Amino acid sequence: MHHSLGLLQLGALSLVPTALGGVLFGLALAAPPGPMNAVIAEESALRGWRAGFFAGLGAMTADACFLVLAVLGAATVITETPGVQRVMVGAGGLLMLWFAYGAVQEANTVVTEGDSSVTAGDSRGFRKALVLALTNPYQVIFWLTVGIGLLEPGVVDVSSYVPAIGTDALTVQTGHPVLLGGFFGGIGLWITGFPAAIVAARTRIERLAPLIAWASAAVLAGTGVLFLLRAL
After folding, report:
1. Who's near 162: CB < 8 A, 6+ residues apart?
2. Which terms under GO biological process does the entry name (predicted)?
């Protein structure tokens, strides 16, 4: 009995690096500046934490959808059919320009978290980020390349790339549910903490909200133009 319990504890401990690796990978994917974080920042600055969180949840939902498509193999149609990929790039570019226009219109509108319109903005931010992510072919390509690597069973010895921490000190098991759980947990940490940081900054400097909205509009417009150029 005690022997079995000890084995279970050792097995659980051996999965700690896998879970941490998943969390770090999720954070590394979610944190870099881009259109998704621009939408989250805009929603957080103008409508509060809930709106920013729901926008992030929309982007994470798209990742979950792409994960399912990658498992089923259906997403390969996008990479194997250049016409479909071009249409998605163009549609994504147009959507980003439309959302950038909306951000400019709302740049001088600051809605406090106690306002009744904040709840209505939650679903709008969710839909905006979800549609934007679903029309982003590069997100699909990520799941067909790096994502497939996460799903295939195997072992990655991270310590082999950093000799100072010792051999087998950090072994990540790919294809394990713990890795995927940690991955989405890392994204969850970002979409929780990032809106909170934006709201905290907005509370200290009320004039920061329209500036964040303008910056978000600039990121969305710039990315939208690049998408359209690539589509053409």
Report:
1. 170
2. amino acid transport
Q: What does residue 28 show for φ and ψ, rounded to 5 degrees?
A: -65, -30
Task: State pLDDT tens for residues 189-198.
Answer: 999 999 999 9
Is the confidence at residue 18, as pLDDT, over 70? yes
The pLDDT of residue 47 is: 84
Distance CA 215, CA 229 (A): 21
Which amino acid belongs to residue 122?
D
* Residue corresponding to tokens 């103008």: 46
Going by C-beta distance under 8 Å and a sequence separation of 6 or more, which residues neighbour residue 160? 167
* C-alpha count within 13 angstroms, C-beta hemisphere, residue 158: 14
Phi and psi at 33, nearest 5°, equal -60, 145
pTM (2 d.p.) = 0.74
pLDDT, averaged across the chain? 74
Among residues 77, 229, 61, the alpha carbon closest in space to that of 144 is found at 77
pLDDT digits (tens, 9 = 90+) for 119-174: 455 678 898 889 888 887 777 777 766 776 777 777 766 555 444 445 555 677 77
